[in-house]
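Title: [Solved] Glycolipid-binding domain-containing protein 3D structure

Original question kept below for reference.
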Amino acid sequence: MPRGRYSLHDPHDHTLLAEEHFHCAPGPSGWRYVSQLTSPAGDHVGSVDLALDELGRPIRLELHAASWQVRGAALDGVTWVRTDPAGTQATEGNVSAHAFTGTSPAFLVATARLLRLTPSSSATRVRLVAFTDPVLAPRTVDQSWALVEREAHATDNAPLIVDEYQVTALDTGERHTVHISGDVVLAAPGIELEHLESPPSESM
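Solution (posted by the thread starter after getting help):
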């Protein structure tokens, strides 16, 4: 069960936004990721709880940020309920999309597990619902994912398999690179792996 800490930065000016303390593990029905987010001052600012089925589809998502809450799942596309800080209003949403995304590294791993790309695969288009900080506002985004390289890095134990993905935002054409090993993001824009207590789980 990988357990560790990511630092989340503004991808443009590299300001530290939060630290995400996580653990994740494959299970009998898929994969689960749980994390707590703290501000640079150490205050609790949110949480992520994401469970996937064996095909990489989100069967449960629960996000908390700035007293806002989102609960969602893959249902007729993806469906979610967003609740305001006062808890008096809940807004339902549904979009014909494949999965969810957001600032947490969990969503990069989840998309990779959903697409199951190989180095010989062509770039694959995916539609996602992004929940943007700090109020978890939903926004539909289209991306293209391609697995451009898979490398084995020698370690003291088994080789570490690292996948390099090229992710393109189809609305702007902006491209960035994501490095994932199993169920841990090693590097991505705005994401740095600061600490890892145990090796990543195998990817699929």
